[in-house]
Design brief:
The protein has 224 residues and is α/β, with parallel strands linked by helices. The chain has a single domain, classed as Rossmann fold. Helices cover 30% and strands 26% of the residues. The strands form two sheets. A seven-stranded mixed β-sheet has the order 5-4-3-6-7-8-9. Strands 1-2 form a two-stranded antiparallel ribbon. Helix 5 links the parallel strand 3 and strand 4. Helix 2 packs across helix 4 and helix 3 crosses helix 5. It is globular. Bound molecules: S-adenosyl-L-homocysteine. S-adenosyl-L-homocysteine binds next to strand 2, helix 5 and strand 4.
């Protein structure tokens, strides 16, 4: 029985746990987009957590990844991804690469992902990890992502995975017409996900669920 399951799963010992994570933590809580659910099924989360935390990789919670940073809870990753409405031809900018897990989920769904991480050793580790796993539509940059990356703009989607006091103006400005931006906004302790959709010069804003993220530190975020 065990050998059969293992063979069907292409030798991934965590495939069964990952299916359970998607069914119980994500689909059961209302994430419906089949492309997002498939991306969550396809992304090996255990490869994005430190070796000693592998057994907890599919638990319903964030995990520490070093440098006082965390990999977000699986449900939050799926929820934010769905909110972003990623399309197959999109170029998405992510702020806060961290482990590279959210980057990988996006890479399954869009044409190209540009991601920026403030902590240089995390950026370097994520770049190597994503390359080892064969993701070739991703560019990882080290630096302050609150200013975005104007040289590659505009972006069809911008996803911020750290929480700022407000949505950075530079990021709004780098959204394509019709583009969506998702960012946790609020005080240091607890925030709300905000979705901004650009229609020409108009920016529509929608407040979504409450959340808790590590701080977005930088020029247009919190000051360290
Ligand atoms: N998306 C990540 C979660 C990362 S936690 C994952 O899937 O693992 C948030 C990350 O944002 C941290 O790694 C933190 O260092 C980074 N960060 C904070 N402020 C930033 C900024 N101004 N620019 C880029 N990254 C930033």
């Amino acid at each position: 029985m065990w050998t059969r399951r293992r063979a069907q799963n292409g030798g991934d010992p965590f495939a069964h746990e990952r299916e359970g994570m998607v069914d119980r933590q994500i689909a059961a809580r209302g994430v419906r987009d089949p492309r997002v659910l498939d991306a969550m099924r396809a992304t090996p989360r255990h490869r994005f957590v430190p070796e000693r935390a592998r057994e907890f990789a599919y638990d319903d919670r964030p995990l520490e990844i070093g440098h006082s940073q965390t990999i977000s809870q699986p449900y939050i990753v799926a929820f934010m991804t769905e909110l972003l409405e990623p399309g197959p031809d999109d170029h998405v900018l992510e702020i806060g690469t961290g482990s590279g897990y959210q980057t990988a989920v996006l890479a399954h769904l869009v044409k190209r992902v540009t991601t920026i991480e403030r902590v240089a050793p995390l950026a370097e580790a994520a770049r190597n990890r994503l390359a080892d796993l064969g993701y070739c539509n991703v560019a990882v940059h080290a630096g302050d992502g609150t200013r975005g990356r104007p040289e590659d703009a505009p972006y069809d989607g911008i996803l911020v995975t750290a929480a700022g006091p407000r949505v950075p103006d530079s990021l709004r400005a780098q959204l394509a017409d019709g583009g969506r931006l998702v960012c946790p906004v609020g005080p240091r302790e607890t925030q709300r996900l905000v979705k901004v959709t650009r229609h020409g010069d108009r920016f529509d804003e929608l407040a979504s669920i409450g959340c808790v993220f590590v701080p977005l530190l930088g020029e247009e975020g919190w000051h360290a």
